Structure prediction request, 183 residues.
Amino acid sequence: MDDTQKPKITKTAILAQTRMFKVEQMDLEFSNGVTAQYERLVGSSRGAVLIVPMLDDQTVLLIREYAAGLHRYELGLPKGKIEGDERIIDAANREIQEEVGYAANHLEHISSITLAPGYLSHTTHIVIATGLYESSAEGDEPEEIEVVPWSLNDLDQLLLRDDFSEARSIAALYMVKDRLKTG
Prediction:
């Protein structure tokens, strides 16, 4: 089905709101006349960036930080919300300076992905960062983030770790690995 057949939103209501999300109820009418109610989490309209900072052709810089959803420390890629009217590339460069202590001479937006689009209104923009040089900026993290260099040649070993489970990071690393292989 194409987008011309999207259901008509007849009513919306905010059921709950936090500093990060709104829970929104949507009353819908489908093209066949059937009505239904859906609920969704509404995040930032600008989305977020997830950066793959490449120290060299094979070494990615991961971070280890606290993940409240799992109540444990997780390895993953640096990421963060796009602020105000910030461009995707500018947000990515800011985030790696805050979280990894590097800036990049070259940043490229390679894809945009969603996570649980059935109920979550959020887009993550994947950016590869190369030509890294030391440059740090103050971030909003409550503790210092550990930076962990990892070889893309050992991606299979990374996937076996209990503390590396975030689907966005996994997808981004495979996209970058394929991109680097094909040039």
Observations:
- The mean pLDDT is 93.
